[in-house]
Amino acid sequence: MASTVVFDLDKVLLGGDASTLFLHGRLRQAPGRLLLLLLAAPLLVPGAMLPQLRPLAARVMTRIAVGGRRESDVEAVASAFGEALTRKPEAAVADAIACVREHQRTGDVVVVATGCEETLARGFLAAIGLGDLDVVGSTGALWPPRVRRAMGEVKVALLTERGYPPPWPAAYSDSPSDLPLFAGTPRPVLVNADEKAARQVERTLGRRPETRTWR
């Protein structure tokens, strides 16, 4: 059975914030959607500020920005990211993409586990040529009401539910907030983080993480 390697998304594969990059691309494609988003802002902005509601706010924002059929959301989101990346290509972290492909060449299964809303994550990966990767992300739905935020211990639980339980040969993240993820691997890799973050991981795990600087 193939080994499963886990990658975070924001600040690892994506240099920046997924929602911001998506909106830049989508509003260039469809400027008229801005009015709808502004009308929804009194609900979307407070939701985005509350961590437990953030996935739901991101999902509603995506639906409003995209419109059309829900079934085509990933394709539409990928198109918007593609538009944004023509103006900000560095947002697709080349070193991280190369690392993913190297793991695939050696036979590993790569899964992206992220606090980012899952549709946004899937669309970004499709835009950078990694649409074949499975994604375990945050989810939100108005009906039936449901929000699950893939952070900390919940991220590990969601990976296990999807059939990717620890231990993992390697896990890549930019933040000590993924300490539960790092605890499930003999090879925690801290990406683009400072020495303070590396020491925090070391204190908790009892071993220093591998560190990478990616661009």
Task: Give a brief rundown of this model.
This protein is an alpha/beta fold and 215 residues long. It is 48% helix and 16% strand. The chain has helices at 18-29, 33-49, 54-66, 73-87, 94-105, 118-127, 152-161, 179-182, 195-205; strands at 4-7, 109-117, 134-141, 146-148, 171-173, 188-191, 210-212.
Protein architecture, described:
The protein is globular, with a radius of gyration of 17 Å. It has helices spanning 18-29, 33-49, 54-66, 73-87, 94-105, 118-127, 152-161, 179-182, 195-205; strands at residues 4-7, 109-117, 134-141, 146-148, 171-173, 188-191, 210-212. Helices cover 48% and strands 16% of the residues. A seven-stranded mixed β-sheet has the order 4-3-2-1-5-6-7. The model has no long low-confidence stretch (mean pLDDT 95). Helix 1 runs parallel beside helix 3, helix 1 (18-29) packs across helix 4 (73-87) and helix 4 crosses helix 6. It is α/β, with parallel strands linked by helices.
List keywords for this structure.
215 residues, alpha/beta, Rossmann fold, 7-stranded mixed β-sheet, 9 helices, 48% helix, globular
SSE order: EHHHHHEHEEHEHEHE
Q: Strand share of the residues?
A: 15-25%
Taking Cα atoms only, what radius of gyration do you get, to the nearest Å?
A: 17 Å
CATH topology of the largest domain: Rossmann fold
Q: What is the count of β-strands?
A: 7
SSE class: alpha/beta
